[in-house]
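Consider this one:
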Amino acid sequence: MKAISFLLTIPFAVFSASAIAQGEQVLRGNQITESALIQALTPAPEFEDPIRTRSIRVNPVNEPRPASAKPAKASLLITFETNSAALTPRAKQSLDVVGQALTSNKLADFRFAIQGHADPRGDSESNLRLSQLRAESVRQYLVQNNNIEDRRLEAIGRGDKELLNTSNPIAPENRRVTIVNLAQ
């Protein structure tokens, strides 16, 4: 059976011209590492150390600085059987790395949304259903095989409305799962 690519999404790197424009990188193969995922999924601190000069306070102590408006998130190439939510062996290997990152000390206290995305082939309703099934498949694998607490992961189907590569709608990066830190 033919395998189809599906992606999980990480900001600030390069995959395609469209991905560059949107500031997102899609990790694949040996780029998917525990340290890369921890870095991408760790939210920016709400409070930064105050900046001080010799005797002038630039920012009063304990006064919050604005937190980053964008949530911490990561995108990875995840493969499924064609028109299916069944994970390939290679996808399972990548998800085991995701599981290691999510159980690390830096991420163990957070909740995450697993957002499924599809390319625009087929009708929107079918794409929404398939993206939901794929997000649920990723969630279920992480819970069952990587000891992630069920309550920490929420599967959300996004369908075909949030293309990463708008210049090539059927590009693999448009069939992805994005993991978003809900910071809770």
